[in-house]
Write a structure and sequence with these properties.
237 residues, alpha/beta, globular, seven-stranded mixed sheet, 6 helices, two-stranded antiparallel ribbon, Spore Coat Polysaccharide Biosynthesis Protein SpsA, Chain A
């Protein structure tokens, strides 16, 4: 079975500020999105990467991407779930209902291929699928509307979800469709699968698989990419 990858990239990055969506900001000589796509393109057995874009996307056609990358695009939606659904529908006639689909954030350029390989191995025989995540290590606080603490939360068995998230194509499409029809806000694909009665597997990923959300994250991502490059060179030599 082929492996398919969906990259929702229709967001405008309001928390980042500026005039350009954060996936098009410069990072280590390229853009954030280009870094992400070129890393995902190295996955063994890859069938295609589908990128869901905003209807008025300002930067896709300026991306310096190698022409041999197995890429296609589709229209993104108002919500993440709409974008992923559109991408899944674009694979009709190409992918099988039982094929694995990875959904990965456009602004997680530091994901490690070894982590993705462990994710796919962990879910191979799983009835649902799973996602990369990191156990929470910091103390968690709940606040009121004014920002004052109202409770300290136990962190036992609490994880911070990341991506990729891996599910069977047909099951993921059905779960997302049901969530959208029910009017439930879905922030990641695992939430939709949980709503459908499934229990996705949590697979520990690397903490350096950061999501670029604020301006300071770009500086950290550049440091991480440089460290990973040195690590790879050391392992190869």
């Amino acid at each position: 079975m082929a492996l398919w990858v969906i990259v929702p990239a229709a967001g405008v990055g309001a928390r980042m500020g500026g005039h350009m969506p954060k996936q098009y900001l410069p990072l280590a000589g390229q853009t954030v999105l280009a870094q992400t796509l070129q890393r995902l393109a190295q996955l063994p057995g890859l069938g295609r990467i589908v990128v869901a874009l905003h209807p008025e996307d300002p930067g896709w056609h300026a991306q310096p991407l190698p022409p041999q990358l197995p890429l296609s695009t589709c229209a993104g939606g108002r919500e993440r779930s709409d974008s992923v659904l559109n991408a899944l529908r674009s694979l009709q006639g190409l992918a099988d209902e039982q094929d694995w689909v990875l959904v990965h954030d456009a602004v997680r350029p530091c994901v490690r291929l070894d982590d993705i390989a462990r994710l796919l191995q962990a879910v191979e025989a799983h009835p649902c699928g799973g996602l990369l995540a990191v156990p929470v290590s910091s103390t968690l606080k709940r606040s009121d509307a004014a920002g004052d603490i109202v409770a300290t939360l136990p962190r036992d068995h609490v994880w911070q979800a990341s991506t990729p998230q891996a599910f069977r194509l047909g099951a993921l499409r059905q779960a997302l469709q049901a969530a959208v029809q029910a009017g439930v806000a879905i922030t990641d694909e695992a939430s939709a699968m949980e709503l459908a009665g499934h229990a996705p597997r949590l697979v520990r990923g690397s903490a350096d698989n950061i999501k670029i959300t604020y301006p300071e994250d770009l500086v950290l991502a550049e440091l991480i990419l440089a460290a990973q490059q040195r690590e790879s060179a050391s392992a190869a030599g």
